[in-house]
Design brief:
The protein is built from 16 helices and two strands. The protein is an all-alpha fold. A two-stranded antiparallel ribbon has the order 1-2. A hairpin with a 2-residue loop joins strand 1 and strand 2. The longest helix is centred in the middle third of the chain and has 40 residues.
Length: about 350
Amino acid sequence: MTATVIGLHVVGWVTLLAIVVPGHYSIGTQTFGAGIGITAYTLGARHAFDADHISAIDNTTRKLMADGKRPLSVGFFFSLGHSSVVFILAVLLNFGIRTLDEQVKNDNSGLHNVTGIIGTGVSGAFLYVIALLNVIILVGILKVFRDMRAGRYNDEELEAQLDKRGLMNRFLGPIARRADAPWKMYPIGLLFGLGFDTATEVALLVLAGSAVVSGLPFYAILSLPILFAAGMCLFDTIDGCFMNFAYDWAFAKPVRKVYYNITVTGLSVFVALFIGTIELLGLVGQEYHLSGGFWSFMVGFDINKAGFVIVGIFVVTWIAALAIWHFGKIEQKWDARQAVPASDGTAELARRG
């Protein structure tokens, strides 16, 4: 697993920096160099933090760990399947897009305008749907947590709520639940990749298509999906390993399991709303030519940097969650409540009431 992730990085960056860059190629007025490689890489990294990626990897990791396995490579195989779709499409573009030469070259063409509006609009709306669905699931998990505090805990109800997270997961969930080994996440990743659930894949393919019509050699074009796969594979693999160890901790006690899933689902909601809002408001500002500080920021926001922003949000959120867990003594309070006999607990509640 480690060798494959490192190999993707080596092949992608060596091809770009040692072979492509010395050729002094360009896409229109933009030099085809390290900057374009970084764009492809960050698109892949950002895609790894989409809500459906998190849900698919998390649900499968939880299932396999419940079966007594150690599924460290769930995120790894999922991302390989997902990135395979992008790579295959980039290859097809290399042979088939030349008929769209003028349309793709011209930034003001009807094709650019229509696909820009439709792609961004569908992506932003899709993310809002994901956020709404995950808000509903989050409410369900919070209900389980509230019942737990009242002395009632239903593990089956919690599992039912967790299995519903993510929009693609609602359609492909029955297939994903058949994955009884990490490598079986590869075909699941392929199916997710066909969903085109965010603008990152579309942006990468537009970039590759522009390289095709600019007459770049095939190895220059294919370096882009390889770098995209390297970024996504790295962070999906880290995500899968992290969830593995997190669930190892979380499965020890019900209160840990609920707390962990409140954090993960809440993050999924925020990420979907964050990216969806930026895309939709940026589209509105661009199409209606809105001006001012706020609209200028939205229209000019570099969506490729959002992946790094999301990584920072994840880190800060987990630090805050761990601090609340530790200093709030949540587990100690749960243990103390469990240690109180039912009759004593009833008397205590009556006294407080």
